[in-house]
Design brief:
This protein is mainly beta and 501 residues long. It has one domain: Methylamine Dehydrogenase, Chain H. The protein is extended. The chain starts with 14 loop residues before the first helix and ends with a helix.
């Protein structure tokens, strides 16, 4: 029924493979002929050099002494005789304080005063803005300038700016700032952070306080107070960096014509300045001095000085001529009605100096003596004060008009500079017998005032002066004005110990 049967295989040709082969085409390409060459080099002259020391290079102490005695007879005995004396004198020098604060300057001394830069921002000058404040960065390379108005004008709606120049930048253009920060209202003052060169604090005409971070060019505002119940109601005339409530942190101090001194902590996460403490000046709570200040019961602050010797002490100058010594640790509440502030305002005044006849525009503590400070204002005088007595130790005629700024030299204990309403800068040396200026700088501002000045903290021979014509002059002082002489600190101590007549 079933049987094996063998059949031939069936082959089915692939139509796809044939059709695919028909569509394939061959192509070729060829480059232009390449030309190649081979070359060789070979040095012809070869030289070898070598050196060798003597085999007996290791000499014993006895051999050295014998050779020294042969070349310089008696030298060994002399060194042995003076050895103990030299060691004693070196030990005395190690304990001496004769050169404390003295820094050797190996740079060549300048014999004249010269203007190295005249910085201008066309956008500010076209609007007639004035330089209201200058500040150096902690590195001493960057100068920041605040533009606003000190004279008459519609301040409330006028826009202004803050400009910075890096003087160490190659190809510096004095008419083109490295950075321009536009501000909606005039900037009255500013201050660089003492340790972080990118942070600048500024006080505005509308009472706001702002901290800018120049490392963020697109949005430089790090924190600001905004307009709230805590902020100033009047223009802010000075800002400073002070130790904050937490260790290692710095807070911003602001003072204005409303009679408030406020301390702000930075909340960078929220972009806000938070009020941490505040002080209010009330005339009824100010100790009476031998003179009588002008003005109403309100005490508008025009200047502030911080002591590097005592972090609890600060000085205030007022619109009415009051000159006050204050304390951050005051526990006396200010006699003012609450106005929505989140902190209790304190009365900081501890002592009142003899008042001046007009506004006190500038104050500055001596960096070389804890008790001495300078004041200047509308009387045209620079007054040398001691915090231990009410009357000035010395008064020097700076100008027949106003004096807007005064600063001690950071390297010369007896030297200070002042800028006047005529635009000139007067530099005084208290070590001289004459009370006339040791140097007068004519800024060629057309008789327009100079409003502010600051010494460079790193390059003490540089002095920046901000002027009413919208320019900032950088002056390089001579070696005579910057190099400390002998006994300057001792002479300053003698001045501090004098009693005013």
């Amino acid at each position: 029924m079933f049987m094996d049967e063998s059949l031939d295989g069936v082959v089915v040709d692939s139509s796809w493979r044939k059709s695919h082969q028909l569509t394939q085409q061959s192509r070729g390409c060829q480059t232009i002929p390449f030309h190649t060459t081979e070359t060789e080099t070979q040095a012809i002259h070869v030289s070898n050099c070598g050196t060798q020391t003597d085999t007996n290079a290791h000499l014993t102490n006895e051999q050295l002494d014998r050779d020294l005695e042969t070349e310089c007879p008696g030298l060994t005995d002399f060194l042995q005789r003076v050895e103990n004396m030299v060691i004693e004198e070196l030990a005395k020098n190690a304990k001496s304080h004769a050169f404390d604060g003295y820094e050797v300057n190996w740079a060549d001394q300048n014999q004249t005063v010269s203007c190295t830069h005249r910085l201008q921002y066309t956008g500010a000058q076209e609007r007639g803005l004035q330089v209201t404040g200058v500040s150096w960065s902690c590195t001493g390379s960057v100068i920041a300038c605040a533009f606003g108005r000190v004279d008459d004008g519609d301040w409330s709606t006028e826009k202004s700016c803050v400009c910075t120049w890096n003087l160490d930048r190659r190809g510096l253009n004095p008419k083109v700032p490295d950075m321009v920060i536009d501000v909606a209202t005039p900037v009255m003052c500013l201050s660089f952070h003492p340790h972080r060169p990118s942070l600048i604090a500024g006080g505005l005409y509308n009472g706001e306080v702002v901290v800018w971070d120049t490392s963020h060019s697109q949005d430089p505002i790090l924190a600001q107070t905004g307009l709230s119940a805590d902020t100033h109601r009047e223009p802010v005339y000075q800002v400073n960096w002070i130790p904050g409530p937490r260790r290692g942190e710095l807070a911003v101090l602001s003072a204005g014509s409303g009679g408030r001194v406020l301390v702000w902590s930075i909340d960078s996460a929220e972009g806000k300045l938070m009020l941490s403490s505040g002080y209010a000046l009330v005339r009824q709570q100010i100790p009476q001095s031998s003179g009588k200040a002008r003005g109403s019961s309100s005490v508008g602050v025009t200047s502030v000085a911080l002591s590097s010797w005592d972090q609890d002490t600060f000085l205030l100058g007022s619109e009415g001529g009051l000159l006050l010594k204050c304390s951050f640790s005051s526990q006396t509440a200010a006699a003012v009605a609450p106005d929505g502030e989140r902190v209790t305002l304190m009365a900081p005044v501890q002592f009142s100096f003899t008042p001046r006849s007009g506004p006190v525009h500038s104050l500055h503590y001596s960096p070389f003596h804890r008790n001495l400070f300078l004041s200047a204002g509308t009387d045209g005088l620079a007054h040398l004060h001691s915090v231990l007595q009410s009357d000035p130790l010395l008064s020097l005629r700076v100008s027949d008009s106003y004096v807007f700024g005064v600063r001690w030299s950071p390297t010369r204990p007896l030297v200070f500079a002042a800028v006047t309403a005529e635009g000139s800068v007067q530099i005084f040396d208290l070590g001289r017998k004459s009370l006339r200026p040791a140097a007068t700088i004519d800024q060629t501002t057309g008789g327009r005032p100079g409003y502010c000045l600051e010494f460079n903290p790193r390059q003490s021979h540089l002095l920046a002066v901000g002027n009413a014509d919208g320019s900032v002059n950088i002056w390089q002082l001579s070696g005579e004005l910057t190099e400390q002489g002998p006994r300057e600190t001792a002479v300053l101590e003698q001045l501090a110990n004098e009693v005013a007549d």
